[in-house]
Amino acid sequence: MNTRNAMAVAALLPVAARAAAHPPASALGLTFPASGGPGVSMQIILLLTALTLLPAAIMSVTPFLRLTIVLHFLRQALGTQSTPSNQVLIGLSLFLTMLIMQPVGSEIYQKAWEPLDKGQITWQQALDAGSQPLRTFLLRFAREKDIRLFLEASHRPRPRTPADVELAVLIPAYTLSELKTGFQIGAVLFLPFLIIDLVVASVTLSLGMMQLPPVMVSAPLKILLFVLVDGWNLVVGSLLRSFYSPV
User: Fold this and answer.
1) Phi and psi (nearest 5°) for 202?
2) Three-class secondary structure of residue 23 per DSSP
3) Which pLDDT tens digit goes with each residue over 93-111?
4) Tens of pLDDT along 194-227?
């Protein structure tokens, strides 16, 4: 009996050594088999592809697009050229996006990631559960006209309820709606600064100061006005309220 046990242990030793030398790889919650093969290569390719598409997804399904457009218009209206810098504007937009999307992210984590991590649901069920909070958020800000446009372009049947709109249609419709909203807010921001430019240009021309560029006088006035009314607080507060207010 002892001889048989010793032979069985000796036979299992090479298998255990190979398993210890090549443990299953794990990354971002994904466990890859130790044997490698086409399946593992395909999973790695899909993971890297998803990571490269992540910035585009952030811009397409979050408030980041509207925030960056409005802040860019504001900088152009002030006439400060590259102040604040692009890094500052993008960083501010990113942190504001995280603040706005935090409830949606928490709901996706609770409904999709936690059950998936515990093995209670499959990947397909996790995707379906996680897409519901995102769909609810996108539907609040996507215009019906834009949704209809992409439904007609893709020749998809008309959904019975808003909850039946597919993400393939809802995401581009939301992006188009955010572009229009961002440009509308930017145009409104431009108006008071444009009036200052026109007044300064009229005054300098009436005084005969033809060699003095109006921007040399209007730029300090616009910055002073913006600081006196606490413009950054007003603009950022209005942007945040535009997402939190019911639609």
Assistant:
1) -65, -40
2) coil
3) 989 998 988 888 888 888 8
4) 888 888 888 877 777 777 777 777 788 888 888 8
- Preceding amide of 162 cis, omega within 30: no
Give the phi and the psi of residue 229 in degrees, each rounded to 5: -90, 5
Of 95, 169, 112, whose CA–CA distance to 138 is shortest? 169
Alpha-carbon dihedral 157, 161, 166, 167, rounded to 10 degrees = 150
Two structure tokens written together for 38:
């086409």
Q: Are 244 and 198 a contacting pair, CB within 8 Å?
A: no
Please name which of 17, 29, 24, 51 lies closest in space to residue 39, comparing C-alpha atoms: 24
Dist CA 12 CA 1 (whole Å)? 17
- Identify the CA nearest to 98 among candidates 130, 63, 71: 63
| Residues 6 or more apart in contact with residue 97 via CB below 8 angstroms | 58, 62, 63, 64, 67
> In sequence order, what DSSP letters do the residues of 176-245 get, joined into one string?
HHHHHHHHHHHHHHHHHHHHHHHHHHHHHHHTT-TTS-HHHHHHHHHHHHHHHTTHHHHHHHHHHHHHHS
CB 28 within 8 A of CB 123: no
